């Protein structure tokens, strides 16, 4: 792994509308994003598919989106536990980036309270179908900057 994970932000990832364009297809660039994130960052699931701390459903669900088995990379993603707000699972003591297509009003309030609203990266695959390819460039710039 290049760089020091202590200097890089933790990543929190949603699935639907972020990594998956629809129930059966990965978003454009998502496969490369997943592999790079898994190999270079501390990554946590932040999705309803893994809100109970069990990542198995999230891995299985996401793997339907591509013929390649992404399990070796997806298994590096850590589970989270939360019930009403995804922000309950975020560690605000460390820098992070949260990739999600829908941050609810209450979650936005929590982010603002902690002064980290800009840590939420709004993914809009309808408007930008190749957005995850661009987010991969962001991850690469962070890694290159930390070496």
Question: Could you explain how this protein is built, in words?
Answer:
The protein has 147 residues and is an alpha/beta fold. It has a domain at 25-86. 33% of the residues lie in helices and 14% in strands. It contains five helices and six strands. The chain has helices spanning 30-40, 56-63, 71-74, 105-113, 131-146, and strands spanning 10-13, 20-22, 25-26, 43-45, 96-100, 120-122. The strands form two sheets. The protein has a four-stranded parallel beta sheet, with no helix packed on it. Strands 2-3 form a two-stranded antiparallel sheet. Helix 4 links the parallel strand 5 (96-100) and strand 6 (120-122). Helix 1 packs parallel to helix 5 (131-146). The longest helix has 16 residues, at 131-146. The chain is globular. The model is unreliable at 1-5 (pLDDT under 50).
Distance between the termini: 10 Å
Q: How many DSSP-defined strands? A: 6
**Which regions are unreliable across 5 or more consecutive residues at pLDDT < 50?**
1-5
Described by its quaternary structure, the protein is single chain
* Strand portion: 5-15%
Helical content band: 25-40%
- Could you give the order of strands across the largest sheet? 4-1-5-6
| Biggest sheet details | 4 strands, parallel
The global form is: globular
| Average pLDDT | 94
**Class from helix and strand fractions:** alpha/beta
Compressed to H and E, one letter per element, the order equals EEEHEHHEHEH
Total of helices: 5
Indicate the radius of gyration in whole angstroms: 14 Å
């Amino acid at each position: 792994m290049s760089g020091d994970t202590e200097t890089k932000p933790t990543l929190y990832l949603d699935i639907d509308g972020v990594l998956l364009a629809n129930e059966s297809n990965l978003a454009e660039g998502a496969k490369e994003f997943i592999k790079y994130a898994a190999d270079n960052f501390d990554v946590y699931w932040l999705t309803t598919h893994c809100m109970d701390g069990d990542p198995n459903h999230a891995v299985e669900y996401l793997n339907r989106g591509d013929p390649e088995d992404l399990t070796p990379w997806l298994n590096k993603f850590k589970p989270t536990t939360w019930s009403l707000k995804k922000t309950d699972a975020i560690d605000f003591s460390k820098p992070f980036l949260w990739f999600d297509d829908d941050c609810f009003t209450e979650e936005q309030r929590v982010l603002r309270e902690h002064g980290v609203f800009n840590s939420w990266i709004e993914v809009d695959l309808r408007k930008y179908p190749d957005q995850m390819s661009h987010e991969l460039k962001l991850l690469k710039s962070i890694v290159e900057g930390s070496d």
